[in-house]
Amino acid sequence: MRHMNRTVLALFALAAMSACTLEERTDRAVPVVESTRRQIIQPEGVARLPIFSSAVRSGDFIFLSGALGALPGVSPPQLIAGGIGPETRQTMDNIIAVLAAADATLDDLIKCTVFLADIADYAAMNAVYAEYFPSNPPARSALAGSGLALGALVEIECIAAVPEG
Questions:
Q1: What is this structure's pTM?
Q2: Burial of 84 (0-12, 13-18, 19+ CB in 10 A)
Q3: Taking a C-beta distance cutoff of 8 angstroms, is the pair 48, 65 a contact?
Q4: Does the domain formed by 36-161 have CATH 3.30.1330.40?
Q5: What does DSSP say about strands 109-116 and 55-58: parallel, antiparallel, or unpaired?
Q6: Which ranges in the chain belong to alpha helices (H)?
Q7: Are the CB atoms for 83 and 153 separated by under 8 Å?
Q8: φ, ψ dihedrals at 125, nearest 5°
Q9: What is the pLDDT of residues 86-133, one digit of tens each?
Q10: What is the residue extent of each domain of the chain?
């Protein structure tokens, strides 16, 4: 009985969608051109692996890849020494560099996700992270995972709103 109800519901949804039409958006002053829908942001000197971009701007958002505490200008990428504190600080500095390349700042961040190799490092990471956001911090999640790239202790990915103007 339950399976039959799902089937009926799926058929109803399919019928409802087939009655819909797609219309061109008219609320934009200039149509979005395919080549401008996605802008790659890759500042010089910020370490990254060759299989992803440091950030991508799309519409009103900038999506930053997970940043590590890698030393700028060092190839292949190498993590800063000293543990979770220095790694978090370098990670945040690398995020600032990527945001600057997109004409944005930490104030434009709306969401960050922090990945820790060991959740026991949460307090030490948080102490450094808080220095960068003395007021009005972005929304944030933090979780522990294993096997961060390059053996990192912390990785932070962010979403920013494109600054007005």
A1: 0.76
A2: buried
A3: yes
A4: yes
A5: unpaired
A6: 2-18, 84-101, 122-132
A7: yes
A8: -65, -45
A9: 999 999 999 999 999 999 999 999 999 999 999 999 999 999 999 999
A10: 36-161
